[in-house]
Amino acid sequence: MQLQDITFRNKSIIENLYCERPLLIASMHSKERVIGPVMEKALGVKPSKCEGFDTDQFGTFTGEISRHSSSLITARKKCLEAMHTLGFDLAIASEGSFGPHPQIPFISANEEILYFIDLKHQIELYVHHIDCETNFKQAEISDFDTLQRFAIDIGFPEHGVIFRKDLFSKNTIYKDCMDWRDLKIQFNNYSQLYKTFYIETDMRAMRNPTRMKVIERAAEKLVEKITSLCPSCSHPGFDIHNVERGLPCMQCQLPTKTIKQFIYKCPSCGFQLNQAQTEKQYEDPMYCDICNP
Known about the structure:
The longest helix has 18 residues, at 209-226. The protein has helices at 3-18, 32-43, 71-86, 144-154, 180-193, 209-226; strands at residues 22-26, 46-48, 90-100, 108-118, 123-131, 138-141, 161-164, 173-177, 197-201, 239-245, 259-265, 272-276. Strand 11 and strand 12 (272-276) form a beta hairpin. The protein is of the alpha+beta class. It has a five-stranded mixed sheet with strand order 2-1-3-4-5, with helices on both faces. Strands 6-9-7-8 form a four-stranded antiparallel sheet, covered by helices on one side. A three-stranded antiparallel sheet has the order 10-11-12, with no helix packed on it. It has three domains: 3-134 and 208-227, B12-dependent dehydatase associated subunit (Rossmann fold); 138-202; 240-287, no CATH class. It is 30% helix and 26% strand. It starts with a helix and ends in a 17-residue tail after the last strand.
């Protein structure tokens, strides 16, 4: 089959699966603004807001409600319960977390999981996206100049800030600071009560345009996975399942830890396909444990 025929076949299959179907974006925080257009353009779905369902019950960034499961399990549960409550058979939910980058020292990262469930065709897919573009910060505050510098640094007022008594407080939290006047008012309020207090970036999507961009990238990544069809059974989600390392060193020819090939696998029929990475045939000796121990 020619590449053009394969592309036409895949597009036809995706249209048959999703064109004109209502898609629930299970979020209270306006994530449909970035997820919806990406999905509508690629799949032909009709995105819908999540009205009448409290997604904060699964956990909040500020800790008033703890998240008791992993991000992946929470995203799946949120997706399923929102679908059941609101009567949808197609939905996406997301979960985000913030902290040190898992591979790069001294760098903060935004990790986003998007979970996609199609009950009609019994399809469940998810993507995990790590992005270094984040303004997640926390600081102890005792004077307004420090607060002002923090606010400017994180992009206030386009990006929100959150006040709290201390890093672990769940009751003395103010989230809705929207302008410089209110920032000054809240500084005065907290300063009267506490010698020092804490401020942090509001990481809720609707108050953080930087995070919204990361969620949009994760949505594009999810689209790539959904529209990647198995060569054997045409099921969506034919994606990298594992990697084989051992790209030979250019100098000694022995295997290195660099990826040699990617292993794709279908989540439905289990069909596998090995594909060599095409960036290079040999690794630089500086990355070889033998030549550069």
